[in-house]
Specification:
This protein has 372 residues and is an alpha/beta fold. The chain is built from 14 helices and twelve strands.
Amino acid sequence: MAYDLISVDDHIIEPANVWTDRLPERLRDAGPHVESDGDREFWVFEGERTETMGLNAVAGRDKEDFSTDPVRFSDMIPGCYDPLERVKDMDRDGVRASLGFPTFPRFAGVRFADAKDKNLADLCVSAWNDFALDEWCPTAPDRFIPMVIGQLWNPEAMGEEIRRCAGKGARALSFCENPAVLGLPSLHSDYWDPVWRAATETDTVLCMHIGTSGKMPHTADDAPMSVGIALAPTNAQSACTDILMSRIPIEFPTIKFVMSEGGIGWVPFALERADYTWDRHRHWAHLDADIRPSEVFDRNVWVAFIDDVIGMQLRHEIGVHKIMWECDYPHSDSSWPHSQKRVAELLEGVPADEADLMTHGNAEKLFRFPSA
């Protein structure tokens, strides 16, 4: 059978004109733009080159060729950066709709938080959002779920940007899974309240992609990179536990978080451990809420899988209504162009009503997509 697939985690490789077309002329040299040097192309921002052109944009390559990132647009298949071609790739893969994270700004606009000129950074955030809302998504409005980024260095401005973008149809905000790593106040402070307030007022979903902060599991300086890749889902577990045991869902009970690209198999143990900790330590630790972490999860948090056999076996412990599917195009973990085949293997024996929820129904409800 063919499944109706909505991917809640894909990635956009920005075309070269995103910022040069939208920034004031006086800021275009300092703003993000593409320069060539020999056989390479680089993004340049505030006079500094990025290390890579297309972050992990390896869709279409054999896994034996995953060792390096593309260094020119011509090294990538056009669907990485062209929305019309992206739709063709989605059709080829049997994917109906897609939610796309940014690449050059990093998943939640973290790169702009490091900018020297915060006025320029603010304009860069708005430019990316306008690109997503006015150019990328309108190319196929029934295929792309609109996502935006915000000003991590200014939560008041971020709140206003959430409201502005919601007025233009945005459904989601990419947010950092651990802002403390960036030198910003943690999720346990009230610093982010303007963001939570705007998100709940506009029903904007907060998507926390693993590694957004730049900190991933690292066991030893000489451990191979494969160790960190294998441990990556623990990044999602950490972020999820932070939320479950914070004041955020208590002060903002209708807030909605998604743990993006973190898998789902870890969820039952994480909830069991969080509840155990809450029960034994909430009095002296002042965890005074009357709602258990597992109940917070059921109300406020969603998770997503690419390839998770154990997660499917544990789906009732997680809650079928909390699980969504992701393709991760064009990254190296992606199931493209074999998503239909892999989903069929994962969902073998799963009742049709449960499969419908996980492949598209939960995403449609959470992101209010497609719009009425």
